């Protein structure tokens, strides 16, 4: 078959002209350099190891190319790739070279900073920690937060061995008890404060917060002070001989409490004749706890008794 070199000569001349024009445009662009902050991608992570601390997420590279090519670079076009295959436990150094940087055609990587990346590896560990709910707000007036529970009560956390050993609890999203007068139940997400740790399985927890009536206070006045364990042939008197006792408990329990249910005393065991400043003590029924005695210290005078 005969070949005619001048067939479609017009198209051939046009193609040659376009190629020449393109070459002139490219050749006319100046070569330039530019520094870029690019992401550091970790690949082939060794099984059974964890990174300790926060590794570098970016590095700086210097690239060279035509000014037009450099102007067209978009975020993500240049990525540094570090192969961690073969890494071992402990502090390790990895050298970065230009051939570890992916870049578009026509872009040459001429420098990497830093040229060496340091990373620390630890053995991976899994352990169970308790869930501690975060409680937000205040119940309605006259009510207080009582006991709480979480279901499940614990979660498994995974991470570097040292970080897992330090972990004592997992937190939840806040459970609001604002204005509550009855038990509050909510399903909330569980999380960890330490960024080097993660949940083995992402999960939520059902948190139950008991809302109970607030304890109230009541003060009983002019309660007599008893002198206990006074030695034989001794007489004693107290100044003052009566005190006030403040009690704290439920409203119902305090309402049932009378002066006879509170025993106020000073223990004078082993003391002979003389004058003493002694601490007053008080015992109350189970419904209440003693919060204050006024005065807390009284004067006790002990004398030998008459025969």
What characteristics describe this protein?
single chain; 307 residues; RNA Polymerase Alpha Subunit, Chain A, domain 2; 4 helices
Provide a brief overview of the structure.
It is built from four helices and 23 strands.
Gyration radius, to the nearest Å? Answer: 41 Å
Q: Count up the domains.
A: 3
Low-confidence stretches: none
Head-to-tail CA distance between termini? 155 Å
- pLDDT average, as an integer? 88
Helical content stands at 10-25%
> Can you count the beta strands?
23
- Write out the CATH superfamily name of the largest domain: YbbR-like domain
What is the CATH class of the largest domain? Mainly Beta
From the helix content, strand content and strand pairing, which structural class follows? mainly beta
* Helix and strand element order: HEEEHEEEEEEEHEEEEEEEEHEEEEE
The main sheet comes to:
9 strands, mixed
Number of helical regions? 4
Rough shape? elongated
The CATH topology of the largest domain corresponds to RNA Polymerase Alpha Subunit, Chain A, domain 2
Strand content: over 45%
Please identify, by name, the CATH architecture of the largest domain: Beta Complex
């Amino acid at each position: 078959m005969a070949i005619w070199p001048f067939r479609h000569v017009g198209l051939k001349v046009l193609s040659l002209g376009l190629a020449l024009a393109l070459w002139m445009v490219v050749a006319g662009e100046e070569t330039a350099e530019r520094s870029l902050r690019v992401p550091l991608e970790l690949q082939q992570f060794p099984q059974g190891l964890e990174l300790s601390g926060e590794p570098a997420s970016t590095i700086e590279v210097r690239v060279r190319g035509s000014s037009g090519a450099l102007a067209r670079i978009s975020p993500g076009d240049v990525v540094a790739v570090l192969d961690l295959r073969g890494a071992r436990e402990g502090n390790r150094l990895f050298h970065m070279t230009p051939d570890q940087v992916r870049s578009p055609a026509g872009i040459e990587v001429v420098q990497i900073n830093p040229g060496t990346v340091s990373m620390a590896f630890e053995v991976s560990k899994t352990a169970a920690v308790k869930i501690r709910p975060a409680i937000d707000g205040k119940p309605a007036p006259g009510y207080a937060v009582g006991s709480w529970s979480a279901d499940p009560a614990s979660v498994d956390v995974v991470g570097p061995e040292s970080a897992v050993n330090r972990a004592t609890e997992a937190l939840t999203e806040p459970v609001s008890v604002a204005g509550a007068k009855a038990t509050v139940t909510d399903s909330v997400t569980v999380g960890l404060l330490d960024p080097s740790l993660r949940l083995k399985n992402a999960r939520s927890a059902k948190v139950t917060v008991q809302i109970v009536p607030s304890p109230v206070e009541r003060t009983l006045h002019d309660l007599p002070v008893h002198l206990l364990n006074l030695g034989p042939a001794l007489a004693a008197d107290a100044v003052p001989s009566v005190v006030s006792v403040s009690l704290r408990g439920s409203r119902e329990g305090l309402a049932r409490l009378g002066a006879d249910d509170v025993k106020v005393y000073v223990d004078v065991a082993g003391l002979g004749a003389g004058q003493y400043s002694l601490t007053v003590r008080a015992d109350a029924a189970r419904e209440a706890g003693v919060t204050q005695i006024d005065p807390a210290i009284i004067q006790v005078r002990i004398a030998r008794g008459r025969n």
